[in-house]
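Mods, move this if it's the wrong board.
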Amino acid sequence: MTEPHEFVIDEAHPSLAGHFPGDPIVAAAILLDRVISHAERVFGKKVSTIPTAKFLTPVRPQQTIVVSIKSVAPDQVSLIGSVSGANVFSVTLMLEGHVERD
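Not the wrong board. Structure tokens:
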């Protein structure tokens, strides 16, 4: 497993205006974009498919999202996102080529 990665979606993000104005949540597409970019940087491989993506709890702007990532197969990684210790999403990504297994 790699070191956890943290990020925050700023309240000024342009996508938030359309996601429940007055009570915004971060769109799943924004979270996916962040975790895909992170996985591609960590493993130096492009994501080919997203076999699973489960969003358990809404993420609000300005919350710190902590992402843990681990390889689970030669071409597959699993990511878990949490806010304040509670899991908010889980994503499985298929990568082009093989990755080193933890």
